Amino acid sequence: MTEQPLAPALRPFEGLGRWAIAIVESLGRFGGFLAQAVAALVTPPFKLWPLIGRINYIGFRSLLIILLTGAFTGMVLGLQIFLTLSRFGAEAFLGPAVALSIIRELGPVLAALMVTGRAGSALTAELGIMRITEQVDALTVMALSPMRYLVVPSLLAGLITFPLMTALFDLIGIFGGYLVGVELLGLSQGTYWGEMQTFVNRGDIMIGFWKSLSFGVIVTWVCTYKGFHVSRGAEGVAQATTQAVVLSSVLILVWDYFLGSVLP
Amino acid sequence: MIKVDGLRKSFHGQPVLRGIDLEVPDGSITIIIGRSGGGKSVFLKHLLGLLRPDSGRIEVGGVDLARLSGRRLDEVRKRYGVVFQGGALFDSMTCRDNVAFPLREKLRLPRPEIDKRVGTALERVGLAAIGDKYPEEVSGGMRKRVAIARALVTEPEIVFFDEPTTGLDPVLVNTIHQLIVDLHRHSRFTAVMVSHEIPEIFDIADRVGMLHEGRIVEIGPPAAIQGSQNPIVRQFIRGEPDPQA
Ligand SMILES: Nc1ncnc2c1ncn2[C@@H]1O[C@H](COP(=O)(O)OP(=O)(O)OP(=O)(O)O)[C@@H](O)[C@H]1O
Ligand SMILES: [Mg+2]
Prior knowledge:
The complex is a heterodimer of chains A (about 260) and B (about 240). In chain A, about 85% of the residues lie in helices and about 0% in strands. Chain A contains nine helices and no strands. In chain A, helix 6 crosses helix 8 and helix 8 runs antiparallel to helix 9. Chain A has about 260 residues and is mainly alpha-helical. The model of chain A has no long low-confidence stretch (mean pLDDT about 90). The N and C termini of chain A lie far apart (about 50 Å). Chain A has one domain. Helix content of chain B is about 35%, strand content about 25%. The mean pLDDT of chain B is about 90. Chains A and B meet through helix 5 of A and helix 2 and helix 3 of B. The site of magnesium ion (MG) has 4 residues of chain B, from helix 1.
């Protein structure tokens, strides 16, 4: 294949074309990676111990940060929403307002962002180091699929832990709102919980659930993909880790908006 | 038998392998020597199916690796044992678990059998007492020996060694060479080894091949290589400085 040099006026378009091709190619690799992982996920043998290890790594060890951020998010919301509602004399609706914003939006999104920072980055770094020290190759030449051993457990753990972490975040957050609204600002306890029960329904909870489930896939997918494709030594690992966190966070927010607009 | 024919590979337009031809007879120890950065590890990775050639054939037991993928490639790899240049031990596992890993996951042996074989393998490399230390807690030489134990514990038909002794003290170099010879005598695997240890390798190799500028410029029994008239080979085994450098 010979390439004709382009007229100078067209050069910028050539660059643009290359860039577009590169993007499409990397999207293809990115998608192919998930397809391979899913294929490995649904074919036996299943590995229980690595999965438990990953649940511990992604979920259990993120508990403290989830508790902390959940509590303060709820408290901040309690304060701000109370102040806003009191201008209309509608403080009674503090309970549902706090609960709905946490269950539908803030719980899934903030929990996912926190877990990304705590566990996602570590996941990328760990896989990246395994890649550059040839541990991934060592698995491959043992005829053992690195997908099955290194990626599938993280993906499954993401699916299991993200909804649980989100549920925990929601509970703690709503309780934080209660602390500020009821204990501090003097709203009646019955109003806070009662109005919540009236206005929050199953649909709201399901939205939060679907969001957290899909964030679990997004974060583990992005972070394992980035770790798996590290090259160029320690600097490559550092770069991949940053990219994994940034890309996960952006995708979480974009996907959150998308789901928010298509789900009822 | 491993038979490589016209193997070529470039990275980003830079040729690294420029047509490698090589035959490795069953049961022999073939050692590849050559300048650092000359493409020895890249060549080994082709034999392992980790890199795909731009052109050429890599026959292992009559099938062309370059055309295999997925499960059929894994069938070939099940006969392999590999010692990577850096050891490539799993750093999340103890040394003992590293050696047990292929037995557990690849051969799926029962627990008592695994313990027995791991014990023997560690004893053979002189590390019976390594216990539950992690790879980063032991010395470089011990790591290399654990890597050798892990590669050989499954009793593979073909073993690849990428510089198993580089960076070790002379006593350890000879210990590991002796170890490889003993293990080879014991289980008659086919070995392909990359090494810089001159002259020690001439005592253990059946054949020595010199890789230079992407080609095997000379291959033969140790005596023939030591007495080679080829200036490139002579310069290399005498360690003369490069006039062009
Ligand atoms: N994945 C890769 N991408 C690009 N270039 C590579 C890659 N792997 C190896 N190379 C290049 O190929 C050449 C040969 O590298 P290789 O690791 O095979 O050398 P070597 O003979 O094993 O050296 P040493 O004795 O130091 O281990 C080097 O110039 C290296 O930069
Ligand atoms: Mg090398």
